[in-house]
Amino acid sequence: MKRDEKLRIFITGVGGQGSLTASRLLGEAALQAGQNVVVSEIHGMSQRGGVVETAVLIGNIHSPIIGDLQADCILGFEPLETLRAMIKASPETIVVTNTRPIVPITVSLGQSQYPEIRDILERISVYLAEGQMIALDAVELAKEAGAAMAVNMVLLGALSATVPLPFSGDHLLEAIEQFAPRYAEANLRAFGLGKLRALDGADGARSVS
User: Domain 6-199, CATH 3.30.1240.10 — does that match?
Assistant: First the structure.
């Protein structure tokens, strides 16, 4: 990454999905690579199962905030929250989103309806140029890896395959290994499955690897 370049990743999800950990790992990988990095928790209700939003900004950064239309990438842990975050997207933004919903309590109580996933993805694609979105069931892949909670690792793997990160894959893998050595093997499997699914072209994925 050149001195005047920057990468702005907006991460959104629901408390308990591991989005804050994903932000931390991206930040640590960037630091290991000698990059200037800011990780900013914009809004967090992880203790209550509410929406959690973070920003990871790497490179020539002057503000810890990602404004409207400014995100280079949106990493969505929950499909409806990804759609809500599209105010941050320009047509050239790359979107990596989980397709497995977390149903709000109002839906469970019959007070509202959760949109069809197909409709959500179609609405997201309206904001983007063709080929700028990858959508995958990160929960399914995490279970396949033997770590049902490793949704964040699956999505990081997909991110690494679709976004030109300003550090090597080894830096990110090292950050994952050091984060939780006890679960490193399963986490790395989940990361690998997410990366492979992205490279295989999950739901119209764009690959820059």
Answer: no
